[in-house]
Each structure stands twice: as C-alpha cells, then as structure tokens.
Amino acid sequence: MARFREIVAACAVSCLLMSPVWGATESPLGTVVAADKASVSGAGAAVGTTVFAGDNLSTADAGSVQLRAGGARFLLGQSSMATINDDGGAPGATLLRGSGTFSTGIAKAFTLNAATAVIRPKSDGPTIGQVTILSAKQLLVKSIRGSLTITVGDDSRTIAEGESYRVVLGPSEDPQDQPPPQGAGAKGGKPPISAGTSKFVWYATAAVAAATIIAIHKALESPDRP
Description:
Blueprint: H1 2-23, E1 30-40, E2 43-44, E3 50-51, E4 56-69, E5 72-76, E6 81-87, E7 90-97, E8 99-104, E9 111-114, E10 117-121, E11 127-135, E12 138-145, E13 148-152, E14 155-159, E15 164-168, E16 201-204, H2 210-220
Parallel strand pairs: 7-9
Antiparallel strand pairs: 1-2, 1-3, 1-4, 4-5, 4-6, 5-8, 6-7, 8-11, 9-10, 10-13, 11-12, 12-15, 13-14, 15-16
C-alpha cells in the first residue's frame, strides 16, 4: 500500500512539473479591428481575429485590414501583403507588396520591414509612417507625423515629419530604379549619396499633402490611442 502511495505521489509531481509545458501557447501579437476584402493566412479576416507571428495578411483590390498590435496600429492598404513578426518581444511586420501604414506613440512599439530596409519611429511621441513597395529594390517612405528612421545594414538616416523619399536599395539593373539627373529630385538640390558609399540612395519627393494626413488620421484614429 505504501509503495502504491509513493507511485501516485510521484505521478502527481510529474504532472505538476509538466503542466506548464503542456499549457504553454504562443502569445498573440495583434487583433483585427477592421477588415474589408482581406484575409489572415488564407482565411477571411474578421473583426476580432487574433494574429500570431508568422501570419500572412493580404488584401484584394479596394480591400484593407487594420490591426491593433500592442501599442501600435498597422493598416495594410489595397492589393497588399505583409507577414506579422515578433521583433524582440514587440510586434512588427514585413511588407511583401503594396502599402503599409503604422501608427504609434512609442518608439519601440512597432517595426516595419521592407526588403532590406527597417523603418521605425525615431522617438517616443505620436508617429505615423507609411511604406509603399514600388519595385523589388525601390520603396516610397513617408513620415506623415513625427520622424522616422530608415536603416539598411549599418546605414541609418532620418525622415522628418511631412517628408517623403523614394528609396533605392543598392545597385539595380531596373531602369526605373536608376537615379535622376544630378541635382534633380534630391533634397536641397544636392545629388544623392552614391551607392558605393551607402547601403541605399534616396530622392526627396513631394511633401506629404494635408489631405493625406487627414485621411490617414481618420483611418487609424489618433496615434495616442492605438
């Protein structure tokens, strides 16, 4: 009888030690708060859908999907695709095609990757950034509110509020990725830094229009309340 009690006690202890492993689940990174003609990993996206690291978001023509992801919001535009990822314990996304916009008031709350570029808020404070993939090595990066940093390898630069840049990531044989004539399209009328001394080159484009700022604010609500 004593031997039987010892065996039961040992089994109970083993169950207690193993239960945290059995009960461990992957933590969600976000929740869908708005969706129209969109999917999460192939299934139709609906308000309340939980999103985990590795999930793919995609939208059809005229579609969109918005996530609340920790202290940020992420809006995927029409005909776009992105993969949600965990960036050191904070949510982030890798934009694969189309356009993505993030809103946050915390510098480390969200990171948006596109090809080899990493775009994030420069500091704490209301920030809205938008990235559009134009080609395999070309991006359009806008800082709609606050300042952004764009980093490729060890090369990092700042995009101030209201500024918009066409960014070319390294050498490219695509004619549409070639630089404009010297002095054209570069900030301050200066030619861009050559690809030989930089991981990327960028060209200033038209300033972000007030109408764009208003539209994005309405879509994402206030970045103070992500």
